Structures are given as C-alpha cells and as structure tokens.
C-alpha cells in the first residue's frame, strides 16, 4: 500500500505540473535572475542571466538523484555505495550533454539531455562492475548490474519528463508549426497546442515561430515519460527489475524516436537523426545487458521504507543540495542571452 501511495503522490505532482506548464511558453518564464558582472556605459551594468531552464533542470536532476537513492536504498544499498557508482557516472556523462549537442547540431552553447542519458546507459553497467570489484563481498552482492541499470533508466526517464518544463521555459525542443503539419495532426492538436512569446526564446530567434501554434512536444514527453517512469517504478519496487527496465527503455526510447518527427528544431542531417539512432541503440543495448547480467534473486523484496530512510541523513541532504546548485549553475547560466542592468533609487520611499 505504501508503494501505491508513494507513486500516486509522484503522479499527482506530474499531473499538477502538466496543468501549470501551459504558462511557461510566456515571455515571463525565461529569465529567473540577472546578475551584474561589470560596468557598461551610461551608468548601466553588464549582466549574466540565470534562466528558469537551469532551475527546472536542477529540479529534475534533484528528483532523479533522490529517486536513485530511494530505489537502490530499497535493496539495502547504502548511499556511499550508490555514490561509488554515481559520482564517476555523472562526471563522465554530464559533459556529453554539451559534446553531443555540439557534434550533432554544430552549436557550442547548446545542451542535450539525450547525449548525457545515452552516455550514462552505456557506462552504468561497467561502472557498476568496477564498483563491485572495489567493495566488500556483501556490498558487491547487493549491487547487481540490471537493478542498477533499471533504476538509472527509470530515474532518467522521469527526470527527462520533468525536465521538459525547462524546454518550455526557454523555448527549445519545440514542435512543428501546426500549419505545416498534416491535416490529422492539426485536428488532434487543434485545441491542445502551444504558443510561445518573447524574442529571446529559442523558438523565436532560431525558427521565427513565436506567436504561432506549435505541436506541444514538450508536454507530450512529460506525459509519456511520466507514465512510463511511474509504472516502471511500481514494477521495480515490487521486484520486477528486468520488466521495469524493458518497459522504461522501450517506452522512453520509442517515444524519443517518434517525437523527433514532430519537432522543428535542427536535429542533424539524415533520414534518422542522431538522437533517434541513440534512442534505438539504447533500447537494444539495455535489453542485451539485462540478458548478459540477469538478476540473481537473493535477499528480501525491495523495501520503500528502507529506501526513504537513505535520504534521512545530513550528508545525503547536503550532497543533494550541492548537486542542485551545480546543476543550476551549469545549465542555467545563459550563454545565448545577456542583460543590460540599470539601478536607481526610489525617491518616494526614502
């Protein structure tokens, strides 16, 4: 019962955010703060923008990291053992978000979560095996490849779904204009579409689609990834690790491949984009890994209470706060927008 309540709570969170997310395409929800960094001319200051993109991305990373601790903690794996796998994994896969985008889209200031996710899926099994070799025998037995990979894929899927709020706020990962879509697509999204506003939104300066109705790809991803991730999470917490992995891999990967056809931003050349190829390869690779490293049924079933208890530690809380802060700065410091700031005294309030 506790597992159903936990997942229902997460589902309610996703549903509430889906309802609220229709505000994010507005101009108001792009820049969260502007920090002065140097004097300009005429008494003004040059500013660096911190974006809501970074804030929503940091929230998604925080949720994914907390869920990873809970899921692996439910198997009796300590936070330290989780960190032995996750710290090198994050260190190696996070730069792929920028490197893959630069390779595919030829833009130096662009990020793609697909690149980081694909790198993480590739590396996770081998880093898990390396961690098993470094830990004592009892800890190594609990740290199995397939449950770790399943937890990672589920957390990534839910994190990507939540992270689409960031895309809505910045105007990236945008869908095709309805007027350029087939009639059946226009009919489906006639009453459920998005309209972005603001000259600094990516959809505006890159494609000139601000003010036009576009396919709500970001919201669709929030729905599909959220549903797939939550169902897979339920399977995981009930001990069906391989089923949870396969469901999440297939649903998330196929949706990534399909959703690319609904997007209008540049995804690279070729009939299949690099992101579609990575999604399909990720499905095959993950299934293969689960067959090569099957789950050894040993020990008790996952305990949600035990997993939640892993968060009840000052070290874990501080680590999560640090991860949120680093994610905010890394993804939220805008390189494609700037600010000109002017300060003045409100004489009437002196």
TrEMBL record:
It comes from the Bacteria. This is Prolipoprotein diacylglyceryl transferase. The chain crosses the membrane at residues 6-21, 50-72, 78-97, 109-127, 139-159, 211-234, 240-258, 279-305, 311-330. InterPro entries: Lgt (IPR001640). Keywords: Cell membrane, Membrane, Transferase, Transmembrane, Transmembrane helix. GO terms for biological process: lipoprotein biosynthetic process. GO terms for cellular component: plasma membrane. GO terms for molecular function: phosphatidylglycerol-prolipoprotein diacylglyceryl transferase activity. Signal peptide: none annotated. It comes from Desulfoferula mesophila. Belongs to the Lgt family.
């Amino acid at each position: 019962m506790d597992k159903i309540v936990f997942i229902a709570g997460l589902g309610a969170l996703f549903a509430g955010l889906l309802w609220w997310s229709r505000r994010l395409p507005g101009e108001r929800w792009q820049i969260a703060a502007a920090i002065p960094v140097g004097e300009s001319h005429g008494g003004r200051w040059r500013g660096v923008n911190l974006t809501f993109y970074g804030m929503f991305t940091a929230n998604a990373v925080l949720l994914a990291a907390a869920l990873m601790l809970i899921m692996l903690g439910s198997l009796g794996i300590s936070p330290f053992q989780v960190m032995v796998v996750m710290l090198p994994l994050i260190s190696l896969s996070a730069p792929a978000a920028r490197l893959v985008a630069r390779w595919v889209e030829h833009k130096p200031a662009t990020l793609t979560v697909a690149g980081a996710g694909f790198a993480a899926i590739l590396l996770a099994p081998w880093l898990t095996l390396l961690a098993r070799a470094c830990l004592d025998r009892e800890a190594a037995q609990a740290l199995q490849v397939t449950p770790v990979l399943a937890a990672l894929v589920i957390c990534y899927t839910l994190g990507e779904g939540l992270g689409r709020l960031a895309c809505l706020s910045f105007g990236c990962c945008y869908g095709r204009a309805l007027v350029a879509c087939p009639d059946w697509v226009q009919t489906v999204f006639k009453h459920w579409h998005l309209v972005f506003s603001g000259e600094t939104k990516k959809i505006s300066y890159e494609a000139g689609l601000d003010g036009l109705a576009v396919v709500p790809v970001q919201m669709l991803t929030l729905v599909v990834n959220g549903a797939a991730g939550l169902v897979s999470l339920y399977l995981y917490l009930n001990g069906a690790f391989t089923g949870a992995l396969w469901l999440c891999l297939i649903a998330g990967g196929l949706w990534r491949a399909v959703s690319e056809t609904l997007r209008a931003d540049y995804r690279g050349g070729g009939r299949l984009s690099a992101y579609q190829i990575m999604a399909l390869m990720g499905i095959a690779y993950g299934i293969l890994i689960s067959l090569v490293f099957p789950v050894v049924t040993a020990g008790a079933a996952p305990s949600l209470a035990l997993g939640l208890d892993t968060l009840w530690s000052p070290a874990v809380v501080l680590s999560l706060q640090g991860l949120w802060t680093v994610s905010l700065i890394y993804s939220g410091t805008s390189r494609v927008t700037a600010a000109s700031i002017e300060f003045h005294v409100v004489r009437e309030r002196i």
